[in-house]
Specification:
The strands form two sheets. Strands 6-5-8-3-2-1-9 form a seven-stranded mixed β-sheet. The protein has a two-stranded antiparallel sheet with strand order 4-7. The chain is 13% helix and 33% strand. It has helices at 10-17, 19-29, 74-79, and strands at 50-57, 63-71, 92-101, 104-106, 114-120, 125-131, 144-146, 151-158, 172-179. By secondary structure, it is mostly beta strands. The chain folds into two domains: 1-30, no CATH class; 45-179, Protein of unknown function DUF192 (Jelly Rolls), CATH 2.60.120.1140.
């Protein structure tokens, strides 16, 4: 494939490169992973959650569109990633609160390690850390992880997966009301 000259009109460049190549360039900015639908056979994926589009803008100003499972009720937030072994048709899960909150997260009945990032009401990154699985018979044996003050959205991704989603110090997050469609399928490493 030939590369357009620097004098070419942007729409001509897009036409010459093709939309797939443009999408690949955007995905490379989100950590270089490709998006693929599907889950491993026998994997447990989130069930009963809607999926919505979110945009992360990293510290360099590069946007990254994500598809997130949404836990926006007390019942959904309480269940969260319990029993989940694969993100399935989304990049991560967003725990959404109507008002700024502070609390604790735990990994009760969560068999896979997770990384969690917290965002304020204005979408600004507050903090992130990793959490270890806990499938102990006694819930009291599961560690509680203190959250930063005043977060409205927490995003959980497979352990170590936040950087591939553009999530790090200095990032911002906008969670939309738009449902994810087939054009926006999750990133699978």
């Amino acid at each position: 494939m030939s590369v357009a000259s620097s004098a070419a009109h942007p729409s001509t460049v897009i036409t010459r490169l093709g939309w797939a190549a443009v999408a690949a360039l955007v995905l490379a900015a989100c950590g270089g992973t490709s998006r693929t639908a599907g889950s491993a056979e026998g994997a447990m994926t989130p069930d009963g959650f809607e999926r919505r589009v979110a945009t992360v803008v990293d510290v360099t100003g590069t946007p990254c569109d994500l598809c997130l499972w949404v836990a926006d009720t007390s019942a959904l937030r309480s269940r969260g990633m319990m029993g989940v072994t694969d993100m399935g048709a989304a990049d991560a899960m967003a725990f959404v609160y109507d008002d700024p909150t502070t609390g604790r997260f735990w990994m009760k009945d969560t068999p896979m390690p997770l990384s969690i990032a917290f965002f304020g009401g204005d979408g600004s990154y507050l903090d992130a850390f990793d959490m270890e699985p806990c499938v102990a018979a006694d819930a009291d044996d599961c560690r509680r992880y203190d959250t930063p003050a005043g977060f409205t959205v927490a995003v959980e991704a497979p352990g170590g997966g936040l950087p591939a989603l553009g999530i790090a110090a200095g990032a911002t997050l906008v969670l939309t009301e738009q449902a994810c469609d087939q054009a926006l399928v999750p990133r699978i490493d």
